[in-house]
Write a structure and sequence with these properties.
The protein is of the alpha/beta class. The chain has three domains: about 150 residues, P-loop containing nucleotide triphosphate hydrolases (Rossmann fold); about 60 residues, Helicase, Ruva Protein, domain 3, CATH 1.10.8.60; about 90 residues, Zinc Finger, Delta Prime, domain 3 (Up-down Bundle), CATH 1.20.272.10. The chain contains 15 helices and seven strands. It binds adenosine-5'-triphosphate (ATP) and magnesium ion. The site of adenosine-5'-triphosphate (ATP) has 21 residues, from α3 and α9.
Amino acid sequence: MEKIWTEKYRPKVLDDIYGQERVVERLKAYVEKGSLPHLLFAGPAGTGKTTSAIALSKEMYGEHWKAAFLELNASDERGIDVIRHKIKEYARTTTISQRGFKIIFMDEADSLTQEAQAALRRTMEKYSNNCRFVLSCNYSSKIIEPIQSRCAVFRFRLITDDNVKKWIEHIAEEEGLKISEEATHMLVRLSEGDLRRATNLLQISASTTNDITGEVVRQSANIARPQDIEDLILSALKDDFVVVRNKLDELLIEHGLSGGDIIKQIHKSIYNIPMDNWHRMKLVERIGEAEYRMVIGSNERIQLEALLVQFATEKKN
Ligand SMILES: Nc1ncnc2c1ncn2[C@@H]1O[C@H](COP(=O)(O)OP(=O)(O)OP(=O)(O)O)[C@@H](O)[C@H]1O
Ligand SMILES: [Mg+2]
């Protein structure tokens, strides 16, 4: 089986990390000095937190980095006691490195409860003579103050569209793919600054062909053509419910889209359809209500139809 691209293309050195120049610069300074405080990496998914922790360790320790790097996941372990036990065992084994400390990387630290974080803080103190903690989270505000104040905080940013584009072109070139402007543009838009998502979407698109067009991406990402969604909305606004039902059938049954996918696209498209602002606000409010009902488990088909009926009645009011 082919290796998944997020691993295959995970940058191995700090310099190859995209779009986090400030973070990379500061981390390289630690490597040069050969010392490290505890670190807190905060930022959205797929922006390079885990990648940076691994690259940092590789540069700190060279080829034997794995012996000096323990990776834990705060959310899938069986609680803080198990985590502390693992840390204890790891901290006890002799320090192999010339650096005098080893790295403990803890992913999803913000999933720990306050009590668990308090316990973690004590553990950090206990082993800080020979271990450095690198904690990763999406929101630093969910990390208790005493931990934050013991760490150097690094903020990871969403990857800019420009950099996502370069990343996609980089992989496409390595993989020998032909990729159209439209496809690249769509992948950038769908990724929303998340390079893991960009990489996965590209790999799924490339699983059937080397010629990546907009249509290939659309099918892989399970999205409808914007034109179909706009037609759906316009037909509803025109009271043309035979067309609305047919279009919905086409999207749900033939294209296999989910109600959630469709409603997200309706939300995006509503801004492209000319109407006065007040009217648009009303429709967005309705979209929000229908989306909420879908999330809590209501029938998707009924919610979509009801939403489109409301589009027609809102217009009459
Ligand atoms: N800044 C980046 N530069 C290059 N590739 C990246 C970057 N960020 C993410 N990637 C790609 O996405 C994959 C996942 O990134 P990573 O594991 O570093 O994300 P993360 O920030 O730790 O996300 P999460 O919050 O979900 O743990 C990497 O293997 C790599 O392929
Ligand atoms: Mg991660």
